[in-house]
Amino acid sequence: MKWIASISPDHNEFAFVLKDEGKVIGAGSVSLDSERNGYKLGYNLNRKYWNKGYATEASKAMIAWAHDTLGIRYFVAAHASANLPSGKVLKKCGFTFCHFGTYSRFDGSETFDASFYEMRLD
To answer: pTM here?
Structure first.
C-alpha cells in the first residue's frame, strides 16, 4: 500500500494486462530520474509470466509512448546484476550498459548490486 500511495502523476505508471483475460500481470513506469538527468524505465512482472516476452513488449510500448507523447529522448534503467534476464530485456529495447553500482528496494529493505543502462533516441 505504501507504494500505491507514493505514486504521483509524473511517474507515468502502467499496468501490464493480458488482453484476452483482463488479468494484471505486472506494472511499469517512466519517471524522471533527476540524479541521472533522464527518464527511468522500470518494470515488475509476476514470476509466472517471466520468459514469455511480456517484459520486453511492455517496455518497448512504454518507451514508444514516452517518446511519442512526452518527447522523451534520454532513458535510463537499472537491474539487479544477478537478474541477467532483465539485462536482456533492456538490451532488446535498445539500452546500452553504462556502469555498475547499487540500488535498493522501494522500502529500503534490501540493497542489490546493480547494472545501469542508458538509451538515447533521435
So the answer is: 0.87
Quick one: cell of 97? 550498459
Cβ atoms < 10 Å from Cβ of 113: 11
Question: What distance in Å separates the CA atoms of residue 50 and residue 103, rounded to the nearest whole number?
Answer: 22
Label the pairing between strands 23-33 and 96-104. unpaired
pLDDT of residue 1: 45
Of 67, 93, 61, the C-alpha closest to 79 is: 93
First-to-last alpha carbon distance for the chain, in angstroms, is 38
User: Domain spanning 2-120: which CATH class is it, in words?
Assistant: alpha beta
Give residue limits of the domains in the chain. Answer: 2-120
Model confidence pLDDT, tens digit, residues 54-97: 999 999 999 999 999 999 999 999 999 999 999 999 999 999 99
